Amino acid sequence: MKFVQKEFSCTFEERKSKFIAFLMPYSMFDVVMKKVKEEHPKARHYVYAYRYLNEFDQIVENSSDDGEPKGTSGKPSLAVMAGAEIINTAVIIVRYFGGIKLGTGGLVRAYGDSVNEVIKIALFKEYKKLEIKTLECEYSELSQLEYLLTQEDINIKSKDFSTKVSLKIELTNEEFEVLKTKLLRSILVS
């Protein structure tokens, strides 16, 4: 599974109708939808689809045809995302009607193609289930520990300097097992 970390957009034309697809992290969906409606007030449809993982690691999906014939736009867009194994991501497709009716099959193809086009240009990051762990060390060991975490591409969520230095880090269980073998014995792990 994979996801995007920023917004991407791409324009696709089909028989004089213009489809502008916006792919973004799911967390940005509401903000981008508002921006898109402000930037494209004369557009005919604002179709969307999204997939994200909830707190129970279940995939939640939703889509909207926004006035297009039922099942011709939102569902095909969602199907493209599911087929590409994209999660924690949303897509909004703005349609400007070009005067030629595409028919149900034409709409399904056009919306699917517009999502495929934006996926082609997007940069994805591989999804990993992350957990929060706490490391404690003496202040004198902090720079060495930070260097190791940077080398292992492990994100430091926070630092606490109250008694010993305490770092909250975010990583997978596999990454944690590898890290434990590289840590100094004086570093406490919890």
Automatic annotation (TrEMBL):
InterPro entries: EFG_III/V, Impact, Impact_N, Impact_N_sf, Impact_YigZ-like, Ribosomal_Su5_D2-typ_SF, UPF0029_Impact_C
UPF0029 domain segment(s): 135-183
Positions of transmembrane segments: none
Cellular component terms (Gene Ontology): cytoplasm
Residue span, Impact N-terminal domain: 15-119
Domain of life: Bacteria
GO biological process, one term: regulation of translational initiation
The family this protein is said to belong to: Belongs to the IMPACT family.
Name of the protein: YigZ family protein
Organism field: Arcobacter caeni
Biological classification of the source: Bacteria, Pseudomonadati, Campylobacterota, Epsilonproteobacteria, Campylobacterales
